[in-house]
Amino acid sequence: MLRTPQPAPDARSAQLDKLQQTVANIKYDEKGLVPAVIVDAKTRQVLMVAYMNDKALLETVRTGKTHFWSRSRKQYWMKGETSGHVQEVKAVYIDCDMDTVVVEVSQHGAACHEGYRSCFYRRLNDKGEWEVVAEKVFDPESVYKKPT
Amino acid sequence: MLRTPQPAPDARSAQLDKLQQTVANIKYDEKGLVPAVIVDAKTRQVLMVAYMNDKALLETVRTGKTHFWSRSRKQYWMKGETSGHVQEVKAVYIDCDMDTVVVEVSQHGAACHEGYRSCFYRRLNDKGEWEVVAEKVFDPESVYKKPT
Fold first, then answer.
1. d(CA B53, CA B59)
2. Scanning every residue of chain B, which has its alpha carbon at the shortest distance from the alpha carbon of A6?
3. Which of B27, B29, B111, B26 is nearest to B61 (CA)?
C-alpha cells in the first residue's frame, strides 16, 4: 500500500494527488457509493460487503484500515471502531466496469457483528431454507455491550 | 442444491414454495436488487459482482446456472449465454443483513468479458494507480464477435 516505504514529502504529495484522481474516476452510483467486497487476504473468504464513497475509499487507503459509508446511519465508520475488530488493508482491486472494489484484509477478531468470522454464515440448503454453516467466534453481547 | 437427489413431485413442489418464500424474504434495495458476489468454488477467487432480483436468484437456484438483472440493459441475462462461459452454481450464501448474496460457482472459461479469469484484474499500486496484475485467458474479440 501507499505507506511503505515512505517516500520524500514531494513524492508523497504527488502520490496523494494521483490517488485522489484515481479514486475520483471510479463509477459511483447515484448515491455516490460503490460496493466493497472485503476478503480475507490469506484464506480468500468473503468476510462482508459494505459501501464506500470516495472519501471512505481514500481514508481506507491512506490509513490502511477499512472505512465505509453507512447508508442507514448516514455517516462514516471505521470497521472495528466499537469492537476492535479492525481490518488491515493488504490490497485494493477494481473491476472491469470500475464500479466495484475488492479489498483484501487481515481481519482482527471477526467481521460479523453477530459473532461469526464472516457475515455470510448461512447457506441455502436442499429444503430451500437458509442454514447456519459456521460457528460463532465471539459473543456479540460482550463485545457490543451498551453503555450503562 | 435443489436438484439432486430428485424428490417426489409433492416434495419438490413444497421445496419450490419454500424456496420462493426464502427468496422473497431477502431485503432488496429500492430497485428490487441485491449485489451477488460470484466466487470460484475451488480457489475462492472473487470472479465478478453483478445484481440479482428475486426472479434472477430463483432462476439461478432452479437451473443451477447464474442469472442476473442487467441494470443498464434492463433485462435478465444468464452468464455465458453469449460466450459459453457459464457458471455452475455450487452454493448460495446470504449475509447477516439479508441484503447481499455470495454464490460459489464452477466457472467455465473465464468470468470477465475483457478476457480475464476475474473482473478484478487491476490492483492499486504504490503510485496510486490501477495496475493490471492478471493475464488474459481468452481473446474477447473472438468470443464476443459481432454478427456479420
1. 10
2. B126
3. B26
Q: Which of A61, A94, A119 lies closest to B120 in CB terms?
A: A94
* Complex ipTM more than 0.90, yes or no: yes
pLDDT digits (tens, 9 = 90+) for A61-111: 999 999 999 999 999 999 999 999 999 999 999 999 999 999 999 999 999
Q: Distance between CA A131 and CA B94 in Å, rounded?
A: 10
pTM given for the model: 0.92
Of A113, A119, A130, nearest to A37 by C-alpha is: A119
Q: Pick from B10, B42, B49 the residue to mutate for testing the A interface (most A CBs within 10 Å).
A: B49
Contact B49 A43 (CB under 8 A): no
A87-94, strands of its sheet edge to edge: A46-52, A34-40, A101-107, A87-94, B122-124, B130-132
- Minimal-distance CA residue of chain A relative to B71: A29
**What's the residue count for chain B?**
148
Q: What's the length of chain A? A: 148
B116 contacts on A by Cβ (under 8 Å): 96
